[in-house]
Amino acid sequence: MSSCLLDCFEFSDRHTSENLAEELLRVARGWQVDGKVVCCVSDNAVNITKAMNILKWTHHPCLAHTINLIVRDALKVMKPTVDKVKAAVEYFHRSTVGAEKLKSTQCQMGLPELKPEQDCTTRWNSTFYMLKRFLESKDAIISTLAIVNAPVDALTQEEWEEVCRVQEPFEQVTVEISGERYTM
């Protein structure tokens, strides 16, 4: 199995199903493969799915994107915990006093200096990495937030335990299917 990039271009038209189908067909015709397309893999957007139907091409949704959607939905259950973590991470990013105190607390505790990571809404695993980093600095974060009297809600013991447990299996699967080790 191999993959090739046939074209890369700015698409400034409206991303309607019809416009997408027209552009995909233009590229396929340009390479004289329009009658040879076996399958198209893409995200799960309705417009691209409809474009595949217009072209009568077999469409398979990207597995990594599907996992992303599943985990995003599952994260809604953890929203209160994730929101608390986000608030604390944002505090450390906004407050130079908080950031410096966290760094010195990590040094005093003999821990690596790990700056809290912010997440990106379009990538669930960035939320996982934010939570994982937060957990790795747990003791220093708890101490620092208490010392500086930061205006953020503390996590309960149950929330600390929940932080990464839910997402770890999804992260492992995503890394496995997205990497070069994945073969069919």
Describe the protein in words.
By secondary structure, the chain is mainly α. The chain has helices at about 15-30, 45-55, 65-75, 80-95, 95-110, 125-135, 140-150, 155-165, 170-180, and strands at about 40, 60. Strands 1-2 form a two-stranded parallel sheet. Strand 1 (about 40), helix 2 and strand 2 form a beta-alpha-beta unit. Helix 1 packs across helix 2 (about 45-55) and helix 3 (about 65-75) packs antiparallel against helix 9 (about 170-180). The longest helix has 16 residues, at about 80-95. The protein is elongated.
Task: Provide a compact summary of the structure.
The chain has 184 residues and is mostly helical. Helix content is 60%, strand content 3%.
